Amino acid sequence: MNLHSLGFGQFFMSQIEDYEQEIDKIARVLAVHKGVLEVHNGEISAQARLPESINMQPTVGDFVLLDGLLDSDSLAVKQVYERKSLLQRMAAGNRSQVQPIAANVDYALIVTSMNDEFNLSRLERYLLAIQESGATPVVVLSKQDLCDNPDDYIEQVERIARGVQIIPISAPKKLGLDKLLSLLSPGATLVAIGSSGVGKSTLVNYICGEDMQKTQAISFFDKGSHTTTSRQMLQAANGSLVIDTPGMREFQPIVQAETISEAFDDIESKMPHCRYRNCSHTVEDGCAILKAIEAGDIDDRRWKNYQKMQREQDRRNQAFKQNSKLRWKKVHLDMRQRKKMEDRS
Known about the structure:
CATH topology of the largest domain: Rossmann fold
InterPro entries: G_CP_dom, P-loop_NTPase, Ribosome_biogen_GTPase_RsgA, RsgA_GTPase_dom
Distance between the termini: 59 Å
CATH architecture of the largest domain: 3-Layer(aba) Sandwich
CATH superfamily of the largest domain: P-loop containing nucleotide triphosphate hydrolases
Shape: flat
Number of strands: 14
Number of domains: 3
Largest sheet: 6 strands, mixed
Strand content: 15-25%
Organism: Pseudobacteriovorax antillogorgiicola
Structural class: alpha/beta
Number of helices: 10
Domain EngC GTPase: 103-249
Binding site for GTP: 142-145, 194-202
CATH class of the largest domain: Alpha Beta
Order of helices and strands: HHEEEEEEEEHEHEHEHEEEHHHH
Cofactor: Zn(2+)
Low-confidence stretches: 211-229
């Protein structure tokens, strides 16, 4: 293996200012702990400290420049290279804290099972986040062997995920896995996301090999059967890279208004046809949205999910503005205090 086998291609090569000085000090992030990164350069692994002055907070999948060779006794991160994609969400229970999930991902697998866990509104949220990230979404419908009507689930996903590849699978029965593996190639990176219990770890185990201790897995967490308690990167036998993630009970995507508009254009395209310009889409006569819901042209569940995401975005924007004001207030306070100290001296 080498750095290029970990996905370090031309996009990242173009960011190197001094090839001879930097190339042997570049590594990819496998896992992030408090103040420490697990990194690998395709040949050896190491731990690197994360200084407070870093240009951006790294996450699993990032490429970083270190201050020394990986076999050095002590390493620190000097720089995080620009990302070609970044999947992120709002931290659970926090309206203003952003939580990066994975960087430099080619494919994002949304794993959801064909049973009571299946939830179209949650699936729409995942799709929005991936669309914003720059990765290619793939919907993986698991537990096909336990489902009597998989076509019904596929049709429901097709209605909200136009143009997105949908792959029904059964990992225990090896159904649909060849189609999934055809997406993978040496150096390609994918991330698996979804709720707990949908079969993500089973799927990752299959991709990386049934007995992960006997594969080319590069994670520091290989200890028998693979279960996920934190985000981590693994390398499968075919050279593809897999980022597994813990189950997510809450998922609030961080998206631009344009992304929401594009994803819900079936709803927003009807709004100009309302009788009143300031229509609230609740009780007004002549409301094109209410008429479309009554006629079955817009699903009421989808409309409510759209409204919920709009409210979340408004609250998020307000929280960001408030935090920005507090940061500037602190900066000005620090400046005044320094000036007072200088005047006294």
